[in-house]
């Protein structure tokens, strides 16, 4: 839904900084982010701020209630279980008529929430912290989305539960998986793990993935070295390929991806005149 090829200017006439945004979103006809009705915005381009506002509240207009600065004495979260009630980059005075995130805010009318508690209410419809949000053990701190560019580098990792309904998306296909904060945020905002402008080979990580193994491809150059291994099932249809001839075999990530993209395990022949670079030595050059 978003990418780098559309106009770098927000179409919303009330945008404060239409040409200053880290990202722009081209609204498409099938957009359903946040469970909102985007039909009136199809074809328009929104800056990241306006896009997030519409995802959360279903409208582009800013409200005086949400953006009016609070007096210093009022900058304290009134949620009793808040862990850091006075430490937040932003505080929100709650208007009971708010529809942010499609939630019922009437019981919180008049309350002041820190940014963390406010986001939790929007995402989950409750201020209570989930026990599932506890930090993962070191062994589990790796993103299981196979097209993640930095699966082990993230400030936070999220264990996904299939009954999750954040932003109105269906998370059931990701049940049990671990996502880095980048991939989690992408699915939370857009309902997909695929990067904008790119095509994902496999939309979700297969359940037959294992961290260790040995590749069955006799031509594999590193059969025991791979970030993950896949056991091919008889009914595998990844990327529309016929995998029946490989049923029961184990493939490393490189061979599995090659077959998914090209329908073969062998590497394509080198172009005419191409010379393979010799392996570099461990020492520094002169």
Description of the structure:
This protein has 286 residues and is an alpha+beta fold. Helix content is 15%, strand content 9%. The strands form 4 sheets. A 3-stranded antiparallel beta sheet has the order 7-8-9. A two-stranded antiparallel ribbon has the order 1-2. The termini are far apart. The model is unreliable at 1-5, 199-207 and 277-286 (pLDDT under 50).
Record the SSE blueprint.
Layout: E1 24-26, E2 45-47, H1 48-57, H2 64-67, E3 91-93, E4 112-114, H3 115-124, E5 157-159, E6 178-180, H4 181-190, E7 209-210, E8 229-231, E9 250-252, H5 253-262
Antiparallel strand pairs: 1-2, 3-4, 5-6, 7-8, 8-9
Please give a quick description of this structure:
With 286 residues, the protein is of the alpha+beta class.
Search tags:
5 helices; 4 domains; 9% strand; elongated; three-stranded antiparallel sheet
Q: Provide the spatial order of strands within the biggest beta sheet.
A: 7-8-9
Mean pLDDT: 78
What's the domain count?
A: 4
Q: Spell out the helices and strands N to C.
A: EEHHEEHEEHEEEH
Poorly predicted segments: 1-5, 199-207, 277-286
How many runs of DSSP E, i.e. beta strands?
9
Cα separation of the termini: 49 Å
* Total helical segments: 5
**How can the largest sheet be summarized?**
3 strands, antiparallel
| Structural class by secondary-structure content | alpha+beta
Radius of gyration: 24 Å
Approximate strand percentage: 5-15%
The helix fraction, in percent, is 10-25%
Write down the overall geometry.
Answer: elongated
């Amino acid at each position: 839904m978003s990418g780098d090829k559309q106009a770098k200017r927000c179409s919303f006439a009330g945008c404060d900084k239409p040409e200053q945004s880290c990202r722009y979103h081209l609204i498409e006809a099938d957009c359903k982010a946040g469970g909102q009705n985007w039909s009136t915005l199809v074809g328009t381009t929104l800056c990241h701020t306006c896009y997030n506002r519409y995802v959360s509240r279903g409208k582009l207009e800013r409200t005086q209630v949400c953006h009016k600065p609070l007096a210093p004495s009022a900058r304290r979260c009134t949620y009793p279980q808040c862990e850091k009630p006075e430490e937040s980059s932003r505080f929100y005075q709650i208007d009971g008529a708010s529809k942010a995130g499609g939630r019922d805010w009437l019981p919180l009318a008049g309350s002041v929430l820190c940014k963390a508690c406010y986001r939790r209410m929007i995402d989950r419809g409750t201020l209570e912290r989930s026990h599932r949000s506890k930090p993962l053990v070191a062994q589990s701190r790796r993103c299981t989305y196979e097209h993640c560019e930095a699966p082990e580098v993230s400030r936070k990792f999220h264990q996904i539960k299939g009954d999750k309904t954040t932003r109105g998306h269906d998370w059931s296909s990701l049940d049990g998986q671990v996502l880095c904060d980048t991939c989690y945020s992408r699915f939370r905002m857009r309902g997909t793990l695929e990067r904008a402008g790119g095509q994902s080979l496999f939309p979700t990580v297969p359940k037959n993935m294992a961290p260790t193994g040995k590749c069955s491809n006799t031509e594999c150059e590193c059969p025991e070295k791979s970030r993950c291994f896949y056991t091919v099932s008889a009914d595998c249809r990844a990327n529309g390929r016929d995998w029946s001839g490989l049923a029961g075999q184990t493939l490393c990530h490189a061979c599995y991806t090659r077959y998914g993209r090209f329908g073969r395990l062998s590497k394509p022949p080198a172009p005419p005149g191409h010379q393979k670079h010799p392996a570099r030595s461990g020492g520094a050059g002169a």
